[in-house]
Amino acid sequence: MVQRVATVAFEGIEARAVDVQVQVAPGLPAFNVVGLPDKAVSEARERVRAGLVASGLALPARRITVNLAPADLPKEGSHYDLPIALGLMAAIGAIPPDALSGFTVLGELGLDGSIAAVAGVLPAAIGANARSEGLICPAACGAEAAWASPEMQIIAASSLIQLANHFRGTQVLARPPPKVRDFSDPLVDLEDIKGQGAKRALEVAAAGGHNLLQNDHGCPANTGLPSLAPLESPDPSHHGARQEPAGCASAGLPDGARRASNGGKPPPPFTPNRDEGPGTDRASFGSECPRTNDFNGLAHLIRSKSLISLGWELRFGVSH
Predict the structure, then answer these.
(1) Short-list 157, 233, 220, CA closest to 190
(2) Of 196, 248, 258, 242, which Cα lies nearest the Cα of 223?
(3) What pLDDT shows up at residue 221?
(4) 36-50, 76-90, 251-265, 301-315 — which is least confidently predicted?
(5) CB within 8 Å of 73: residues ≥ 6 apart
(6) For the whole model, what pTM was predicted?
(7) Domain 2-168 falls in which CATH fold?
(8) Can you give the pLDDT at residue 280?
(9) Residue ranges of the domains in the chain?
Protein backbone atom coordinates (compact mmCIF):
# COMPACT_ATOMS: atom_id res chain seq x y z
CA MET A 1 0.00 0.00 0.00
CA VAL A 2 1.24 3.50 -0.92
CA GLN A 3 0.63 6.43 1.44
CA ARG A 4 0.34 9.82 -0.29
CA VAL A 5 1.11 13.24 1.18
CA ALA A 6 0.87 16.56 -0.68
CA THR A 7 3.68 19.11 -0.54
CA VAL A 8 5.20 21.71 -2.89
CA ALA A 9 8.31 22.51 -4.90
CA PHE A 10 9.24 26.16 -5.40
CA GLU A 11 9.88 27.80 -8.76
CA GLY A 12 10.55 31.42 -7.86
CA ILE A 13 7.54 32.41 -5.76
CA GLU A 14 5.30 29.80 -7.38
CA ALA A 15 4.58 26.67 -5.35
CA ARG A 16 4.08 23.65 -7.61
CA ALA A 17 2.22 20.67 -6.19
CA VAL A 18 4.34 17.60 -5.38
CA ASP A 19 2.97 14.17 -4.46
CA VAL A 20 5.04 12.39 -1.79
CA GLN A 21 4.45 8.65 -2.16
CA VAL A 22 5.62 6.44 0.70
CA GLN A 23 5.76 2.65 0.36
CA VAL A 24 6.73 0.21 3.12
CA ALA A 25 7.21 -3.18 1.44
CA PRO A 26 8.77 -6.56 2.24
CA GLY A 27 12.44 -6.91 1.43
CA LEU A 28 15.88 -6.09 2.77
CA PRO A 29 15.82 -3.07 5.11
CA ALA A 30 16.47 0.09 3.12
CA PHE A 31 15.35 3.71 2.98
CA ASN A 32 15.49 5.27 -0.49
CA VAL A 33 14.29 8.68 -1.70
CA VAL A 34 13.79 9.03 -5.46
CA GLY A 35 12.27 11.69 -7.71
CA LEU A 36 15.22 14.01 -8.47
CA PRO A 37 16.04 15.05 -4.88
CA ASP A 38 18.96 17.36 -4.08
CA LYS A 39 21.44 16.73 -1.26
CA ALA A 40 19.23 18.31 1.41
CA VAL A 41 16.28 16.12 0.41
CA SER A 42 18.43 12.98 0.33
CA GLU A 43 19.66 13.74 3.85
CA ALA A 44 16.04 13.82 5.02
CA ARG A 45 16.32 10.05 5.54
CA GLU A 46 18.58 10.52 8.57
CA ARG A 47 16.58 13.44 10.00
CA VAL A 48 13.32 11.53 9.62
CA ARG A 49 14.78 8.36 11.14
CA ALA A 50 16.17 10.23 14.16
CA GLY A 51 13.02 12.33 14.57
CA LEU A 52 10.77 9.26 14.64
CA VAL A 53 13.01 7.48 17.16
CA ALA A 54 12.99 10.58 19.39
CA SER A 55 9.18 10.59 19.18
CA GLY A 56 8.94 6.99 20.39
CA LEU A 57 8.57 5.39 16.96
CA ALA A 58 10.88 3.05 15.11
CA LEU A 59 11.17 2.40 11.40
CA PRO A 60 10.14 -1.12 10.48
CA ALA A 61 12.84 -3.49 9.23
CA ARG A 62 11.41 -3.38 5.72
CA ARG A 63 12.14 -1.72 2.40
CA ILE A 64 11.01 1.93 2.50
CA THR A 65 10.76 3.84 -0.77
CA VAL A 66 9.79 7.50 -1.01
CA ASN A 67 8.95 8.86 -4.44
CA LEU A 68 8.60 12.60 -5.06
CA ALA A 69 6.34 13.02 -8.07
CA PRO A 70 6.58 14.38 -10.71
CA ALA A 71 9.97 12.70 -10.96
CA ASP A 72 11.36 15.13 -13.57
CA LEU A 73 10.87 18.20 -11.35
CA PRO A 74 13.95 19.05 -9.22
CA LYS A 75 13.23 18.88 -5.46
CA GLU A 76 15.29 21.24 -3.31
CA GLY A 77 15.23 22.18 0.36
CA SER A 78 14.61 20.70 3.77
CA HIS A 79 10.84 21.27 3.79
CA TYR A 80 10.28 17.71 2.49
CA ASP A 81 11.25 16.28 5.92
CA LEU A 82 7.80 16.67 7.46
CA PRO A 83 5.71 15.21 4.59
CA ILE A 84 8.05 12.21 4.40
CA ALA A 85 7.85 11.68 8.18
CA LEU A 86 4.05 12.01 8.29
CA GLY A 87 3.71 9.66 5.32
CA LEU A 88 5.78 7.07 7.17
CA MET A 89 3.76 7.57 10.36
CA ALA A 90 0.56 7.00 8.42
CA ALA A 91 2.04 3.96 6.67
CA ILE A 92 2.97 2.26 9.97
CA GLY A 93 -0.30 3.21 11.69
CA ALA A 94 1.01 5.88 14.08
CA ILE A 95 -1.62 8.31 12.73
CA PRO A 96 -4.87 7.60 10.85
CA PRO A 97 -4.20 6.89 7.15
CA ASP A 98 -6.75 9.49 6.02
CA ALA A 99 -5.58 12.22 8.42
CA LEU A 100 -3.38 13.87 5.80
CA SER A 101 -5.90 13.99 2.96
CA GLY A 102 -6.76 17.53 1.98
CA PHE A 103 -3.56 19.01 3.46
CA THR A 104 -0.34 20.38 1.99
CA VAL A 105 2.58 19.64 4.31
CA LEU A 106 6.01 21.26 4.68
CA GLY A 107 8.55 21.61 7.46
CA GLU A 108 12.07 20.65 8.53
CA LEU A 109 12.71 18.04 11.21
CA GLY A 110 15.24 18.17 14.01
CA LEU A 111 16.88 15.07 15.42
CA ASP A 112 14.70 15.42 18.52
CA GLY A 113 11.47 15.35 16.52
CA SER A 114 10.98 19.11 16.59
CA ILE A 115 9.68 20.93 13.52
CA ALA A 116 11.81 23.87 12.42
CA ALA A 117 10.76 26.87 10.34
CA VAL A 118 11.31 26.82 6.59
CA ALA A 119 11.22 29.45 3.86
CA GLY A 120 8.29 29.74 1.48
CA VAL A 121 5.38 28.96 3.81
CA LEU A 122 3.28 31.90 2.57
CA PRO A 123 3.41 30.99 -1.16
CA ALA A 124 2.83 27.35 -0.19
CA ALA A 125 -0.25 28.40 1.78
CA ILE A 126 -1.52 30.51 -1.12
CA GLY A 127 -1.08 27.55 -3.47
CA ALA A 128 -2.78 25.16 -1.05
CA ASN A 129 -5.70 27.54 -0.64
CA ALA A 130 -6.08 27.73 -4.44
CA ARG A 131 -6.41 23.92 -4.47
CA SER A 132 -8.93 24.07 -1.58
CA GLU A 133 -6.48 22.33 0.75
CA GLY A 134 -5.37 23.05 4.29
CA LEU A 135 -1.76 23.46 5.43
CA ILE A 136 0.41 21.65 7.98
CA CYS A 137 3.50 23.70 8.79
CA PRO A 138 5.94 24.54 11.62
CA ALA A 139 4.51 26.47 14.56
CA ALA A 140 6.99 29.29 13.89
CA CYS A 141 5.46 29.78 10.41
CA GLY A 142 1.79 29.49 11.33
CA ALA A 143 1.17 33.23 11.69
CA GLU A 144 2.74 33.80 8.27
CA ALA A 145 0.62 31.09 6.62
CA ALA A 146 -2.55 32.56 8.14
CA TRP A 147 -2.28 35.58 5.81
CA ALA A 148 -3.10 33.37 2.81
CA SER A 149 -6.80 33.10 3.68
CA PRO A 150 -8.94 33.49 6.82
CA GLU A 151 -10.97 30.41 5.89
CA MET A 152 -8.31 27.77 5.17
CA GLN A 153 -7.45 25.19 7.80
CA ILE A 154 -3.93 25.54 9.22
CA ILE A 155 -2.23 23.15 11.62
CA ALA A 156 0.98 24.64 13.02
CA ALA A 157 2.88 22.24 15.28
CA SER A 158 6.26 22.36 16.99
CA SER A 159 6.91 18.60 17.06
CA LEU A 160 5.84 15.28 15.59
CA ILE A 161 4.30 14.31 18.93
CA GLN A 162 2.03 17.36 18.80
CA LEU A 163 0.82 16.36 15.33
CA ALA A 164 0.22 12.76 16.41
CA ASN A 165 -1.79 13.94 19.43
CA HIS A 166 -3.73 16.37 17.23
CA PHE A 167 -4.79 13.67 14.79
CA ARG A 168 -5.73 11.37 17.69
CA GLY A 169 -7.85 14.16 19.20
CA THR A 170 -5.95 14.31 22.51
CA GLN A 171 -4.29 17.70 21.87
CA VAL A 172 -6.15 19.63 19.19
CA LEU A 173 -4.15 22.58 17.87
CA ALA A 174 -5.94 25.88 17.28
CA ARG A 175 -5.56 27.80 14.04
CA PRO A 176 -2.84 30.46 14.42
CA PRO A 177 -3.93 34.07 13.91
CA PRO A 178 -2.16 36.34 11.38
CA LYS A 179 0.62 38.27 13.03
CA VAL A 180 1.57 41.89 12.53
CA ARG A 181 5.24 42.57 12.98
CA ASP A 182 6.14 44.71 15.98
CA PHE A 183 9.07 47.07 15.57
CA SER A 184 11.32 46.93 18.63
CA ASP A 185 13.23 50.05 17.60
CA PRO A 186 11.58 53.45 17.11
CA LEU A 187 10.89 54.21 13.47
CA VAL A 188 12.78 57.00 11.76
CA ASP A 189 10.56 59.76 10.42
CA LEU A 190 11.40 61.09 6.97
CA GLU A 191 10.82 64.58 8.34
CA ASP A 192 13.93 64.11 10.48
CA ILE A 193 16.10 63.90 7.36
CA LYS A 194 17.51 67.35 6.59
CA GLY A 195 19.67 68.69 3.81
CA GLN A 196 19.50 65.67 1.51
CA GLY A 197 18.41 66.17 -2.08
CA ALA A 198 17.79 62.44 -2.31
CA LYS A 199 14.90 62.88 0.11
CA ARG A 200 12.85 64.28 -2.77
CA ALA A 201 13.41 61.08 -4.77
CA LEU A 202 12.04 59.01 -1.90
CA GLU A 203 8.94 61.20 -1.61
CA VAL A 204 8.18 61.02 -5.34
CA ALA A 205 8.76 57.25 -5.42
CA ALA A 206 6.47 56.71 -2.43
CA ALA A 207 3.73 58.99 -3.74
CA GLY A 208 3.68 57.43 -7.20
CA GLY A 209 4.21 53.81 -6.17
CA HIS A 210 7.45 53.70 -8.19
CA ASN A 211 10.45 51.45 -7.79
CA LEU A 212 13.70 52.85 -6.47
CA LEU A 213 17.26 52.24 -7.64
CA GLN A 214 20.22 53.46 -5.60
CA ASN A 215 23.53 54.16 -7.29
CA ASP A 216 25.48 56.06 -4.64
CA HIS A 217 29.12 55.41 -5.67
CA GLY A 218 29.94 54.73 -2.04
CA CYS A 219 28.54 58.07 -0.87
CA PRO A 220 27.97 57.86 2.91
CA ALA A 221 25.48 60.75 2.84
CA ASN A 222 22.80 58.67 1.13
CA THR A 223 23.38 55.51 3.15
CA GLY A 224 20.20 54.23 4.75
CA LEU A 225 17.81 56.58 2.96
CA PRO A 226 16.14 53.91 0.78
CA SER A 227 15.34 51.86 3.88
CA LEU A 228 12.83 54.58 4.81
CA ALA A 229 10.88 54.10 1.59
CA PRO A 230 8.78 51.12 2.78
CA LEU A 231 7.65 53.18 5.76
CA GLU A 232 6.54 56.05 3.54
CA SER A 233 4.91 54.01 0.79
CA PRO A 234 1.15 53.84 0.37
CA ASP A 235 -0.65 50.52 0.86
CA PRO A 236 -0.01 48.16 -2.08
CA SER A 237 -2.80 46.74 -4.17
CA HIS A 238 -4.43 43.46 -3.22
CA HIS A 239 -2.32 41.65 -5.85
CA GLY A 240 0.91 43.19 -4.60
CA ALA A 241 -0.07 42.65 -0.98
CA ARG A 242 0.11 38.91 -1.59
CA GLN A 243 2.73 38.59 -4.35
CA GLU A 244 5.47 40.72 -2.81
CA PRO A 245 5.28 39.17 0.68
CA ALA A 246 5.36 35.77 -1.01
CA GLY A 247 8.67 36.77 -2.59
CA CYS A 248 10.02 37.78 0.81
CA ALA A 249 8.82 34.49 2.30
CA SER A 250 10.44 32.45 -0.48
CA ALA A 251 13.71 34.26 0.15
CA GLY A 252 13.54 33.42 3.83
CA LEU A 253 13.44 37.01 5.04
CA PRO A 254 12.62 37.60 8.72
CA ASP A 255 8.91 37.53 9.57
CA GLY A 256 8.06 36.31 6.09
CA ALA A 257 6.01 39.21 4.81
CA ARG A 258 7.99 41.84 6.77
CA ARG A 259 4.77 43.44 7.94
CA ALA A 260 4.78 46.86 9.51
CA SER A 261 2.24 48.38 11.87
CA ASN A 262 -0.08 49.71 9.19
CA GLY A 263 -3.23 47.73 9.79
CA GLY A 264 -1.61 44.41 8.95
CA LYS A 265 -0.84 45.35 5.35
CA PRO A 266 2.75 44.73 4.22
CA PRO A 267 4.98 47.51 2.88
CA PRO A 268 6.66 47.01 -0.49
CA PRO A 269 9.80 44.88 -0.13
CA PHE A 270 13.18 46.52 0.42
CA THR A 271 16.49 44.78 -0.19
CA PRO A 272 19.39 46.64 1.44
CA ASN A 273 22.46 47.62 -0.53
CA ARG A 274 25.58 45.62 0.35
CA ASP A 275 28.44 47.53 -1.27
CA GLU A 276 31.90 46.12 -0.66
CA GLY A 277 33.52 49.52 -1.00
CA PRO A 278 33.46 52.95 -2.66
CA GLY A 279 32.78 52.99 -6.37
CA THR A 280 30.67 49.86 -6.35
CA ASP A 281 27.55 50.33 -8.46
CA ARG A 282 24.76 47.99 -7.57
CA ALA A 283 21.01 48.01 -7.37
CA SER A 284 19.56 46.57 -4.20
CA PHE A 285 20.69 43.01 -4.85
CA GLY A 286 22.43 40.69 -2.40
CA SER A 287 26.19 40.34 -2.28
CA GLU A 288 26.13 36.64 -3.14
CA CYS A 289 23.27 35.27 -5.22
CA PRO A 290 20.19 37.37 -6.03
CA ARG A 291 17.29 36.18 -3.94
CA THR A 292 13.74 35.52 -5.05
CA ASN A 293 12.38 38.87 -3.90
CA ASP A 294 15.19 40.67 -5.81
CA PHE A 295 13.97 39.25 -9.11
CA ASN A 296 10.39 39.88 -8.05
CA GLY A 297 11.11 43.56 -7.46
CA LEU A 298 12.95 43.78 -10.78
CA ALA A 299 9.96 42.23 -12.56
CA HIS A 300 7.72 44.91 -11.04
CA LEU A 301 10.11 47.57 -12.29
CA ILE A 302 10.14 46.19 -15.83
CA ARG A 303 6.35 45.80 -15.98
CA SER A 304 5.67 49.31 -14.71
CA LYS A 305 8.54 50.82 -16.77
CA SER A 306 8.98 53.25 -13.92
CA LEU A 307 12.33 54.01 -12.33
CA ILE A 308 13.60 56.71 -10.01
CA SER A 309 17.36 56.73 -9.61
CA LEU A 310 18.96 57.90 -6.38
CA GLY A 311 22.67 58.70 -6.78
CA TRP A 312 25.46 61.20 -6.32
CA GLU A 313 23.63 63.35 -8.82
CA LEU A 314 19.87 63.27 -8.47
CA ARG A 315 18.25 61.99 -11.64
CA PHE A 316 14.60 61.39 -12.44
CA GLY A 317 13.59 59.38 -15.45
CA VAL A 318 11.63 56.56 -16.97
CA SER A 319 13.23 53.28 -17.97
CA HIS A 320 12.47 52.00 -21.45
Answers:
(1) 233
(2) 196
(3) 53
(4) 301-315
(5) 9, 16, 18, 35, 36
(6) 0.69
(7) Ribosomal Protein S5; domain 2 (3.30.230)
(8) 36
(9) 2-168, 190-317
